[in-house]
Amino acid sequence: MTTPPLRYLAAADVVACMPPLPDRIRLAERALIGLATGAEQPAKIGVHPRPAESFVHAMPAHLRGDAADGSADLVGLKWIAGFPPNGLAGLSALHGLVVVNDPMTGIPLAIMDGGPITSHRTAAVSGVAIGRWSRPVVGRAARAAVIGAGVQGYAHVPVLGHLLPGVELAVYDRQPERAAALVAAAAAVPGVGAARAFADPRRAVADADVVVTCVSFGPVRQAMDAGWFAPDALVVAVDYAMSVAAEVATGAALFLTDERGQLFANRDAGLFDGYPDPDATLGEAILAGTPRPAGGRVLVTHLGVGLADLVFADAILRVAKARGAGTLLPR
């Protein structure tokens, strides 16, 4: 048997081979359902280097495919480092790689930059939630708020435009110039009807039908209590409990997460103090056909799972092979 080549995909290669937005949402749903139907996905294994709030996580995953011999399985790992102080030096806070292994031999097939995968798979998971549990709006454009104008803010705007055509977007960031830049970029995004920067985060979310929180990690947590949000809002938190207070989860008509094990592990570590157990995982709710409650808020907290990165990486690798993209490395 000939050892297959090891393909390296830089960030530009990953972006070039990224599936289109509707396919990304379907891939995210596949990963969420996989988690609910037996995929092997341990909670993140982490170490914490000296810079404040820094972490390095290993995120292995295995998803069984349809082939009885395992040839259609997915096996791989995401390795991601988060160093918030990097911003002071003009560096990105997050750096990651995704490794895809051959499911029959374990031979690494590809190593790819994890940055574009992280941003797009996270936004796609939010898209699954928005598509299923946002409240239909009649007689006016939907209103959405994005709190945090970093990489995730940029990744979520196209998802909001796709799922909520004509959406009126409110943007807040602690650095006003970043909020202004995202508003300017949103003007060219299909489906975005209008965009405006706010100086006050509470005003930005006050009448939003959908709120996405994606601020950087820091010492201040759970700043947004239940009084911040509209009574029937869908709140999608992709920043753990940096923004959303435990009382929002406790009082939600429906509280969903991507994977219980990670939520519980982080709650034990003090990152989700006061949060209740979720009503279901996203995958369980999809399989059960759980509807949007007739009244009350829906909170979706997704912490990021390695299986989603792997499902995306497999799709990207298939395109890269077909196009001959990337660099083949000697073994």
Brief overview:
It is built from 10 helices and 15 strands. The protein has helices spanning 11-16, 21-36, 115-133, 151-163, 176-186, 201-205, 246-250, 260-268, 282-288, 306-323; strands spanning 6-9, 45-47, 55-63, 74-82, 94-101, 108-113, 143-147, 167-172, 192-197, 210-213, 234-237, 254-257, 280-281, 298-301, 327-329.
The CATH architecture name of the largest domain reads 3-Layer(aba) Sandwich
Biggest sheet, open or closed, and with what strands and sense? 8 strands, parallel
| Mean pLDDT, all residues | 96
Structural class: alpha/beta
**In oligomeric terms, what are we looking at?**
single chain
Rg over CA atoms, rounded to whole Å, is: 19 Å
Number of domains: 2
Percent helix among the residues?
25-40%
Can you tell me the CATH class of the largest domain? Alpha Beta
Strand order of the largest sheet: 9-8-7-10-11-14-12-13
How many E strands?
15
CATH topology assignment of the largest domain: Rossmann fold
Separate helix tally: 10
The topology string of helices and strands comes to EHHEEEEEHEHEHEHEEHEHEHEHE
Distance between the termini: 15 Å
> What proportion of the residues form beta strands (DSSP E)?
15-25%
What form results from the Cα inertia axes?
globular
User: What do we call the CATH homologous superfamily of the largest domain?
Assistant: NAD(P)-binding Rossmann-like Domain
